[in-house]
Fold this protein.
Amino acid sequence: MPMAMSPSPPPSTRPRILFLGDDIQYCPEIYQRLQSQFDIIQPAPSDLQRPAFLQHLRHRTWGDFQAIMRPSWHTGGEMGKWDRELIELLPPGVKVSASAGAGYDWVDVGCLAEHGILYCNGAGASTEAVGDMALYYIICVFRNMTRSFLAARSADPAQFQDAHHNLPSTARNPRSHTLGIVGLGNIGLCVARKAYAAFGMKIVYHDIVRKPREQESDVGATFYPNVEDMLRVTDCLLLANPSTFSGRPFLTKEMVALLPRGARFVNIARGMLVDEDALADALESGHLVAAGLDVHFDEPNVSKRLAGMDNVTMTCHNGGGVVETRVGFERLAMENVEAVLVGREPSTPVNKHLMGKKEGQQQSVVIVVNGDAGNGHVVHGDGEEERSNGTTTDSMGERSNGTTTDSMGEGSNGTTTDSSMDDAV
């Protein structure tokens, strides 16, 4: 039976915004400003499921809107991946799509650019929150905290005594150990500053673009143009780079093998960056001694192998999960849409450098491993970063099944946005 279609909106001369997700919660004054300038259409939640959403686009139910706005990371993504199938159904006059979340592994930003659509993320809004979470994980992997947590929660005196007496034999202070960061965008740099100031860690990093010398000096950072060389000197590897629309992993069996035996691993970026079986193998063999994972390959599903290990600390993609992040996401999504529609530069453009290029002309920036760019280690900007016009973008993202995760990033003034986490919320 054909789906009942909502009536098309009445004709209007004002630009139209398609508003996806829940009502504005934190920044009503900005929303009121948008209402005074534009027509805003907010579909019902049932219209956002992929079959219904595509049908509404085909039938132009919402008219010829010029902007798409998704201010909340936890709603508005029910239709799943924004791939070519979906993007080619958008009205030809769409100029901008602005979403919460620093990551954009759920949207084909190259295809959007082919159609003249600028994509803006929520980079920067979650930088502090994710940076703090990274410190928590660094402590956990150096101090065997999960083993201690589990022993205490068992309420078993024998387990308590075992942890109390035996865990110190393998615990270490982070101080003077080398923290290797892949992706020194907003989030990666925030982590470096915190780890350097709080723990006195040595900072090494890999990125496709080297940071200014003064920023390196602030955290005592050493740049490695070759990621393999950095891995060989890293005591604790931290991923702060974005995943890509293709979802290829960065941390593979081969990459893990380059880390020194006894190294530690933390991922606050994207779960798809990690081959979880390779990680579990390395932990079981003792090549890696501990791991901290805020993000997972198939969220909300978690690797049962990794979950069963007491040297693995896990959380539920909560890195950027604070009220301040949600406020920032709302604000950036609305301000970016407003800026484009009135002819100003948006704060956090992700694909500006791809605008005007046709399919096949858009080349991804890659980390070269073994002199070979064909291994799928694609990193847009910042290691996580994507650089469109000298800015850095932070990426965090969403899952391909239409569920949403949280992101990081900040950068409302167009100076530095973090996209790899800076992919991490």
Q: What stands out?
A: DSSP finds 14 helices and twelve strands in the chain. The first helix runs from residue 28 to 37. Residues 362-424 have pLDDT under 50 and may be disordered.
